[in-house]
TrEMBL record:
InterPro entries: DHMBA_Reg_Transcription_Factor, Zn2-C6_fun-type_DNA-bd_sf, Zn2Cys6_DnaBD
Organism name: Talaromyces atroroseus
Source domain of life: Eukaryota
Gene Ontology MF annotations: DNA binding; DNA-binding transcription factor activity, RNA polymerase II-specific; zinc ion binding
UniProt-recorded name of the protein: Zn(2)-C6 fungal-type domain-containing protein
Entry keyword set: DNA-binding, Nucleus, Transcription, Transcription regulation
Annotated CDD domains: GAL4
Coiled coil regions, renumbered to chain: none
Length: 482
């Protein structure tokens, strides 16, 4: 607050001796000579310098120090004109009040307007579970960790210590819940492990942690989430919240398996059957997305194993059937689902829930990318004939065009929903970014994977890679930590 008094501008020894700058009393004055005043030199006293000008203009005041400052104020004022205030002691330390808002911050970023059905998030169950989480529970502690990583500027010098403490409390709470037979099968425990993985991946990326270490940490969480799905059994499909959490975690496991070439849990088909059997109209879109992602994973895994086998005869004989499966991925999905209503129609990005569409889009882009990689390997095999090379070249052009057209639809859908058309630099896609665009963590989580796929794929067009990276950069700037 402004310092309205007249603080002494003299050097430290003169202020300690209460020597003021008085021009008429030359012997006693502090002449303000810099770097040492002449009075100190004459007295042979070490002159320790002057205060900063800003310290004399302003002083930092808190509730506790303000009352003390009033008591020490020697300036005369009429007592009848100055009201007397009595300050009550605070119930909380002001420096720790930010911690009380971490959970609310996470809840805000994972909340979606109820009226905006199309913008529902794959983490839409979070706004229902976070408010019900008890203090000290795994979900409560992980939410505090996410909030703490998002508000480093409010914590200042205590940021690292506070964040480390919050992260440690999260690990302790999760391990305690995993040892409890009831808590380890709850929705909040599984969701806490999923959120902790999101935090650790973000922290590793932001702090330049080695990729191998980050990958090992991610694999540890993946194995833990797969084991939790096994322990939860059929009961997890009986409630809508349990089905939503299963779909989110299951698609995360499949995404990791497609990226790393690993295996998904062997119980996946049984889980999908239970999921479809218990799904109603509200979760049928999520069931469709889960089945579609699983079939994409199976085809990508077969392609990877075929490429790694490096047998030209087997590669040439089996490549046609795999490429046919890539072309028929939508019809295969509906055959697996079986009793899905015909009103859903063929798979298109323009239909269904936006969050589910983005999950399917990521897997379809990865499927097309694996098909193109298979064509590149097959066409260079020694036993490949000229006719086969021509056929593979036509297939390659077909899948390349399909990849680029699909990437354009994904970019347009994301830019339209989040009002970021100006970040897409194409003659066909132009617009102005809206001033009312609000980006939350849930928005970033559902579009990060397809945007990264488009931004890093060699099969994308130049403007598509630039647009995807621009949107990602804009969103990361808006949301901070995540």
């Amino acid at each position: 607050m402004p310092n309205a008094g007249g603080p002494s501008r003299g050097c430290l020894p003169c202020r300690q001796k209460h020597v003021k700058h008085k021009p008429l009393l030359i012997i006693q004055q502090c002449d303000l000579t810099r770097p040492q005043c002449r009075r100190c030199l004459r007295k042979k006293v070490p002159c320790q310098g002057y205060r900063d000008e800003w310290d004399m203009r302003f002083r930092v005041e808190t509730v506790s120090t303000y009352e003390t400052a009033i008591g020490r104020d020697r300036r005369k004022r009429p007592s009848s004109l100055v009201p007397q205030y009595h300050f009550l002691p605070l119930g909380h330390d002001l420096s720790n009040l930010h911690a009380d808002h971490f959970v609310s911050l996470v809840l805000h970023h994972f909340s979606i307007a109820s009226a905006d059905v199309d913008l529902e998030s794959p983490v839409k169950i979070l706004p229902h579970l976070i408010p019900a989480a008890e203090e000290g529970s795994p979900l409560h502690n992980v939410s505090k960790t996410l909030g703490c990583s998002y508000l480093p500027s409010t914590i200042r010098s205590h940021h690292s210590t506070t964040l480390a403490r919050a992260y440690g409390n999260s690990l302790v709470a999760i391990n305690r819940a995993l040892r409890d037979p009831t808590e380890r099968t709850s929705d909040s425990t599984l969701l806490s492990v999923w959120l902790l993985r999101v935090y650790e991946l973000t922290w590793c990326l932001n702090n330049g942690v080695d990729t191998a270490i980050a990958s090992a940490r991610s694999d540890l969480h993946m194995s833990g989430m797969a084991e939790l799905l096994r322990l939860r059994g059929r009961e997890q499909f009986l409630s809508q919240g349990g089905r939503e959490i299963f779909c989110m975690v299951f698609c995360t496991l499949l995404n990791r398996a497609v990226i790393t070439g690993g295996d998904c849990p062997p119980e996946s088909l049984n889980w999908l059957r239970e999921f479809i059997q218990h799904s109603g109209p509200s979760t049928m879109g999520a069931a469709h997305a889960a089945v579609f992602c699983y079939i994409c994973y199976r085809i990508c895994s077969d392609i990877r194993r075929l490429i790694d086998l490096a047998d030209s005869e087997i590669l040439l004989s089996r490549s046609q059937s795999l490429l046919q499966q890539v072309d028929e991925i939508e019809s295969i999905t509906y055959r697996v689902i079986g009793h899905v209503q015909s009103s859903l129609g063929p798979y298109q990005i323009a239909n269904g829930n936006f969050g589910d569409r983005m999950v399917r889009s990521d897997f379809k882009l990865r499927l097309l990318s694996n098909a193109l990689e298979l064509l590149l390997h097959t066409s260079h095999m020694p036993g490949c004939t000229l006719q086969q090379r021509n056929e593979f070249s036509e297939r390659q052009d077909h899948f390349t065009n399909e990849f680029q057209n699909f990437a354009e639809k994904v970019l347009l859908a994301i830019a339209t929903v989040h009002n970021t058309q100006s970040l897409i630099v194409s003659d066909d896609l132009k617009g102005d970014i809206g001033s009312d665009a609000v980006i939350r963590w849930s928005h970033v989580l559902r579009v990060t994977q397809p945007l990264r796929m488009i931004g890093q794929s060699p099969f994308s067009l130049v403007w598509q890679r630039r647009a995807a990276n621009n949107i990602l950069k804009f969103m990361y700037t808006q949301v901070g930590a995540i």
